[in-house]
């Protein structure tokens, strides 16, 4: 049961001690995403330099899954290349939408594999994806500038 | 465990779901009957037997199976009518409460219908409340958009009661549509007073009784309402069946809603005449076996006794309100006394999102509650919260299950401490 | 008895109703599947088990039972989608075919919706045919009355085929709604040709596939239709469940129909946003167990094989048309060859009213046929007859049952000689 | 089974040899009733003198039940008093709408008791009642003149 639970120690850790939380300057793009069904919200900023993600800063409210997912996102993207980070987003999305049938690629996902258990709860998948979709959106907008 | 007037252990044996275990051997603690109730063997077996041995289409068929199905289907209508003190011709079967509410909403502002009670346009007003289920808000929003009428509503007090301000119901009001009992707060609304105010200005009144008919003895005549809607799946009946009751004279005056087989008297290519109510509002093959299952549900509830069920739920609610008071940083949204309230208790826990509460209760304790806005988002906006956790009780619940809930909540607080 | 590609004796064992006797020991000869079909154990048991052990509301619940119900319900959508070659997001669950047809009709002429394909008013035209079921006539009459649009129709030839005259579909046509297969004549209509004509003038086309999807392999893409409606109870599924398929892009463009829980994205007191299709059109608690039962029905039909079922019915129809030709003073209404026709055979008997035919067949022989106008009164008016007797076949019927029908008809003639 | 059947010998006899069929003169009132669901029709005339029913003549089309019921109606009403005939109509209506639960009063109904079996078939009750309702209507109209 403990192993099956979606509340992995790591998720709770990120929820209680979110990494990189808070909105920072400078930034190239800011987005605000809402999950209207449950009211979860996130405001997210990215600062990109060439191909490099210099900072991902955010603020938001919602359940532990959505908040922890934002924290993990920050860790995995900040400092990596834009292309690399987007492939992590893609892999995370694939895992989340896999209804629990998809094997996670731990090499790509790092800490984010802790969310594998969430994929079995369709109602929570949106919580986990909220910040990741916001990030993708923000990167697209920053590139458009 | 506190004992009440019901023999709950015997009742639980009637519901096969309580004999199952959840994965990992968790017991099932089902506190989500406000969402949908579990089904007793009587309902399940009645449906199975009908499907297996007596099934055919109703009304149209003239053979043995057709007669058996028709008798069972119309017999279910008799049972439902008896259950709420109605005449059988005033009981329309729909697929759920939402269809029943929409049916009434679509009766207004139809250009073909000239009965002044059902005309609707700019300047006319529709009144609902801030504590309605989306199914009693959105149909009226859509109606207002189609016709240019104005949608108004009664607000809700901090205690979770209707704020019965003057000036909401006016001479321009055509229809007042209000929940008999709130599916979030548990509040039982003063519907007789609201009916009086509506009728005073010549408006009609619709009661959304989805949360009252399953739990209290309801007599439609005593409520002084014009329309009453409720739904089978919340009253130990099957999915796929709902009920609209309306005064015969109104059903006659309303235009048809869904067109098709069985709701007609005669059809030519260019025009039709319609069957008398209730068939006028039952286009196509109805939810036959579902109505029959609802009839069995009515038999079951009547056998146990609605008064006894009401008293049992009252005990559970008293016990729950007291027990939850002991949980730190927990806030009940809705009346904190037993006065004019049913067995639905919603709450928030400081710093912990309801989604996390619900998931851990389920994951670790097998406690099934509902979390979110419970299809009443405006009510949650009113209280400035995105969501609540809701425990709702029914005849098969025990105080022991409320203890399990409270144990679970303490654990939740530990996890997120 | 003539043998066909199906092992009918084995199939009959799957349907518990065939193990029962009618009163007085009559065997059951069920030739009324065009009205509603019988149910196999797989459907009955799937529903029973779900009601007993896995039931809860869908979508909204986050606990184990909620997840199990949601998975089963959405899994049924996958199955139905696969059955007709559709994408799952294009499959809307309704309570029956009639609701599906009304849903499309109510999408037109809604003043809130400005998509030019769905606007409708005086001068605009709606096209149906003279052989439609009332469920595909009355919704369009009601729409025409509400909006001032004109209802037109294709006539029917003496042979029971559509008279595809020019000038019915015109530049003013907004929607063409036509049966894929007639529930009286058995005629299969040239729907691809009709779709071509409709699209040529920019109109949309809806196929009422209530009588085709149960009996033939149907691929919605190949039909080139915009909307396809069908119903669970005619395809060995339960009552209370129907299907509307529509192209995703059209579902997006259509206004909501029934408002309420589950069809929304966010609700404020004064406005709402809506969920994407198919949920946008599924207000309130859906027919959960009924959809799951329909999923089992699809599994059952797929297991037997639609091609095999079609071939079997073809044999039965050939046999029936030949056998009925031998009955004196009997006249088949509809095509007398197998070309573009399904397994539904309607007829009159000179000087004997169909009500009497049906009652004696049932009373004395246990033969269940349907008598009357079969919800297609205009078609009967076209042939100048008040009613017909209809025998309709399905996978579980045998040539021996057709022999019983013919024996019965001879007896009917003796009684009224 | 034979006993249960609604096709009593007597009903078939009346169907094959209808009594008093055909529209006759003189008459005080003529009515035309239709059962739209099954298409059965009847045209019926009454000639009343004081309290006495002098003639009930009719023509129509439909199933054996509706046709035989008209023939029996003719027999039972012609020559009786208006009041008496209306009480027969009431008793027949009560029998037909009794869903097979009502015991027929043979003294009042005479031959019409043969229709008792029809009451168990809701779809056929309207057929049996068609001419009887038309008769009631015609009597009311004749009295209004
Ligand atoms: C051709 C046709 N269309 C529509 C319907 C209506 O289907 P339902 O009764 O399930 O609404 C039927 C059957 O009754 C039918 O045969
Ligand atoms: C108060 C209230 N109204 C309406 C509804 C809608 O009922 P249904 O889902 O059966 O349409 C519900 C339950 O979902 C409810 O609690």
UniProtKB/TrEMBL annotation, chains A, D:
Residues 6-127 form the NIF system FeS cluster assembly NifU N-terminal domain. It comes from the Bacteria. GO terms for molecular function: iron ion binding; iron-sulfur cluster binding. Pfam families: NifU_N. GO terms for biological process: iron-sulfur cluster assembly. Belongs to the NifU family. This is Nitrogen fixation protein NifU. It comes from Nonomuraea wenchangensis.
Automatic annotation (TrEMBL), chains B, C:
Residues 29-405 form the Aminotransferase class V domain. GO terms for biological process: cysteine metabolic process. It catalyses: (sulfur carrier)-H + L-cysteine = (sulfur carrier)-SH + L-alanine. InterPro entries: Aminotrans_V_dom, Cys_dSase_SufS, PyrdxlP-dep_Trfase, PyrdxlP-dep_Trfase_major, PyrdxlP-dep_Trfase_small. One of its GO terms (molecular function) is pyridoxal phosphate binding. The keyword Transcription does not apply. Its EC number is 2.8.1.7. Keywords: Lyase, Pyridoxal phosphate, Transferase. Its cofactor is pyridoxal 5'-phosphate. PANTHER family: CYSTEINE DESULFURASE, CYSTEINE DESULFURASE 1, CHLOROPLASTIC. NCBIfam families: sufS. Belongs to the class-V pyridoxal-phosphate-dependent aminotransferase family. Csd subfamily. This is cysteine desulfurase. It comes from Nonomuraea wenchangensis.
